[in-house]
Design a protein that fits this description.
It contains three helices and ten strands, in the order βαβββαβαβββββ. The protein is α+β, with helices and mostly antiparallel strands.
């Protein structure tokens, strides 16, 4: 999936959170739209109210949306650095602290200011190509 868009109530507030993670912001930014380069993919935040007529209303605040997004990192220490950055972001809620998981992984989980759930994960054997694209074992 080379491009994913997450519809949110406040894309510019959410951009503050993603600016704390190891994903550089794209130069392409506009009213109601912010994008980040995540390896070989693009992750965009877009104003949900602009598409309500076509897609319907988003879930109410506090609702789990049934999706967990994952940010993959190069080395285990990046999990801890991302944790330190995310825990200080206004509106982010840490669900689990960094810990070792199954199958040689390390990660933590948080809920962003708009109730989306995220994992930040390092997986043993994972590499990234020269564009930053994930090569999953």
């Amino acid at each position: 999936v080379p491009f994913v868009t997450l519809l949110v109530r406040d894309p510019h507030r959410m951009a503050g959170l993603f600016g704390a993670l190891p994903s550089p912001e794209s130069e392409r930014r506009g009213p109601g739209h912010v994008a980040f380069r995540c390896g070989g993919a693009v992750f965009a935040l877009a104003q949900a109210s602009l598409v309500v007529e076509d897609l319907g209303a988003p879930p109410p605040p506090g609702a789990f949306k049934g999706v967990v997004f994952t940010v993959n990192v190069d080395v285990p220490d990046e999990v801890d650095r991302a944790f330190e950055a995310v825990k200080d972001v206004d509106g982010a809620l840490i669900l689990t602290e960094p810990h070792d998981l199954f199958l040689g992984t390390r990660g933590f989980t948080f809920r962003d200011p708009e109730d989306n759930v995220w994992d930040v994960i390092w997986t043993e054997g994972t590499t990234f190509d020269d564009r930053g694209g994930l090569n999953y074992p």
